[in-house]
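Input/output pair, single chain:
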Amino acid sequence: MFLEWSVGNWENCGLVPGALFEESVSSGDRKYLRELAKSVVEITHLPVMEERRAMWRRHNRLERVRPMILVFPEGAWRELLPGSAMRCKGHRARAYEWSLRQALYHHQYLHDDTVIEPHWVVRKQVQLSNWGLEPRRRPSAEPTGAWAFDPVILSPDDLDQLRPPVVTVDEQATQRELALAQDLFGDILGVTLRGVGVISFHLMAVYTALRGLEQVMIDMLDAPDMVHRAMEILEEGYRQIIAQYDALGLLNLNNDGEYHSSGGVTYSDELPAEDYAGRPRLRDLWASAEAQEMAQVSPRMHAEFILPYEKRLLAPFGLNGYGCCEDLARKLPDVLTIPRLRRVSIAPFADVERCAEQLGDRCICSWKPMPAHLVGTFDEEHVRDYIRHACEATRDGIVEIILKDTHTCEGRSERFTRWTDIAQDVVADY
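Output:
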């Protein structure tokens, strides 16, 4: 776990997205933040953190240690660590406070294999323009209802409007953030400036947002050439994004615990490559791709309309991951042709036995258990049997258990603790 502030934490720490942040932190907030940072740094130096790093390195090079466990409360953080619990007064200070207290909470209550790193990460302020068109959505009449696609690509001619996004870096904002973090934490945690650490490709997510999911499905039958042309444009666009990252010096080695694919972490002694000379190249990095929007199409269509484009994008990278929340059980023979594939996401709805049989020990089975077990009646014996069943199915392979997509625990925060403790108890036998 990297200690950092991100835009995604606005809601978690009780702020409205887009809130203006102060350029400074008050003396009272500063004192409290430094106290929190000192508490966090004590945790980062516990022997268990290095033990976990070593296990992740072995796991990621396909040595079986035991099933590794990660827990991502995601939307449920609003219940575990609500904005109302923040003590700091300033907006920026509250965002910093939430990140520090998240690490403390994770260590105390979520007993998984998360490594908390002893530094504060400042990300370079990178922006990407759109793809030449802006997606539109039709909102629901219900307050919490689902939005609908409002396509902006209506004909093959509209594909001519697609453009590769332009990457820019706000150097002034980056330096302001870096200076403030160094002033706050530099003598406690240490501050690290990083560029782009997570590299992932989402061609169908981009295209369906512009064309509409249902219409893309129809096009696969009625206008297949249009789908292929769109994928060609997006493939080249992503290639140009990566080239811009490289030219702007934004590529960072990501073998030190960055988030990977749909839930793993990247600790590795296989990367960078042996001839690494100090400037990261694609073969020194982890990358990933997914096409959740293709969950309902056949293996043949998946292999025709999306996988070739993703494979070409992933080919230059050192190690790769694939998949997210889609069921890949029937598509694994094609997925396993991805170069240097190291991690495959196995969704909660997938047949874990069938997936494990196909994956063997060729790559990591990144199994996502059902997050719905945290709501309704929390049946501990059912959770135990459910996790044990997956461990039995994958006992001849390399497996990680990633609890994610958890939108609520119905205010029962202890359920995350019990779920994780049950999982640790089960995997000890494997």
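The chain has one domain: 7-427. The mean pLDDT is 95.
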